[in-house]
């Protein structure tokens, strides 16, 4: 399965600004991208980057600099347009007849495991969707050229409606890991609790820890300095 | 599989107070409980209530009053203690030898489906855990009398440690539906987007709707009056 991974390195993850500065957000975004690309490949997928411009990863941000960077040598498509038209252009290859299915997996699914992605790739339906928390579409598989994405607003509901309007079947993939896109400070707890890749290592290295504090939902804590 | 469903009708769901008054929170809590009990039974489980006192559901809160109330005739254990000791007392039946496994499923998993619960019941391990968002333990299956729960704090991590200390294997169940316990106003969006039972119907009847508003994560909206 070819798997499109949209990613932008231009001021990424702005909603993490309360806890990470711009350079940190960029490094953390690359750590998550590498985790996603690794998991896609381990699930048997063939990752391809969809980027708005040249990719310039921070030179020194690999957790273990003996690692090969999984971003090296990945196929990449450069498309300057916003996410929705860029993904739809990528999906148009389905109409050419040489590709029977394509997946789109967001680059901030830091909890994605090969097992969770294999469930997505193996799900049925003309369209298979892994919903994100709050009604987003974190990952999907498309098997029909009549389907188009629209990531604005409540995209999970919109994607179901777009599929229904085109007479296409939809399978939903029930995965906590794929539902967790890392956008806001509260999401970092999930990475610390359930992640075991570069993203979790990066956060720990940056001083983040789980703060139980007696609350029924836990927060992250980062000591000053 | 016998499935313990802890529930309290004493001022439930206090963190929903910003959007629901005390009577509404009680009615909504019962709607969620009924959804969970229905889903457990449809998944092949045998639900049993664990309550701190007599259960007195609002007389008029069934969405369709021709429905039979699934709470009628359910086995129930009354235990006045807090959640952790009450659940541990219930789990002590595993040591008696007449029960080989027990599940504990929280009463506020309004998105639980028979399919998601069947994955939990069918998971392997001496202990199978469906983690909640923020490090909680929303549902688990216990097959060894040496395991004890501790719901305080980051219970998912604590439960893994308790199991490891007792030499028990743990299987984690990756389910967005089981990870969504409905505690806070933001959680209501998930019920509206993914629920199709009494809880979602109750919220719609109470005037809640999904408010897309152009945000990347959506909120709930409840018109005044």
UniProtKB/TrEMBL annotation, chains A, B:
HAMAP family reported for this sequence: CofC (MF_02114)
Protein name, UniProt field: 2-phospho-L-lactate guanylyltransferase
Catalytic activity: (2S)-2-phospholactate + GTP + H(+) = (2S)-lactyl-2-diphospho-5'-guanosine + diphosphate
Species assigned in the record: Halobellus rubicundus
Transmembrane segments: none
Gene Ontology molecular-function annotations: GTP binding; phospholactate guanylyltransferase activity
Region annotation (Disordered) ranges: 51-80
EC number of this enzyme: 2.7.7.68
Pathway note: Cofactor biosynthesis; coenzyme F420 biosynthesis
Species lineage: Archaea, Methanobacteriati, Methanobacteriota, Stenosarchaea group, Halobacteria
Family to which this protein belongs: Belongs to the CofC family.
Name of encoding gene: cofC
């Amino acid at each position: 399965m070819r798997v499109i991974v949209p990613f932008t390195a231009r001021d990424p993850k702005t909603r993490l600004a309360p806890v990470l500065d711009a350079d940190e957000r960029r490094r953390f975004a690359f750590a998550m991208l590498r985790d996603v690309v690794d998991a896609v490949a381990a699930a048997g997928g063939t990752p391809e980057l969809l980027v708005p411009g040249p990719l310039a990863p921070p030179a020194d941000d690999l957790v273990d600099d003996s690692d090969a960077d999984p971003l090296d040598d990945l196929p990449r498509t450069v498309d300057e347009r916003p996410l929705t038209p860029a993904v739809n252009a990528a999906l148009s290859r389905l109409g050419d007849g040489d590709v029977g299915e394509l997946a789109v997996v967001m680059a901030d699914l830091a909890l994605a495991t090969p097992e969770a992605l294999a469930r997505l790739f193996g799900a049925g339906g003309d369209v298979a969707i892994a919903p994100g928390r709050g009604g987003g579409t974190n990952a999907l598989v498309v098997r029909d050229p009549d389907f188009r994405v629209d990531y604005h607003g409540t995209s999970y509901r919109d994607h179901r409606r777009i599929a229904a309007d085109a007479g296409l079947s939809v399978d939903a993939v029930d995965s906590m890991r794929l539902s967790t896109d890392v956008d806001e400070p509260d999401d970092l707890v999930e990475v610390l609790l359930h992640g075991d890749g570069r993203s979790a290592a990066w956060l720990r290295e940056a001083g983040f820890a789980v703060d139980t504090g007696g609350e029924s939902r836990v927060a992250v804590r980062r000591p000053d300095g």
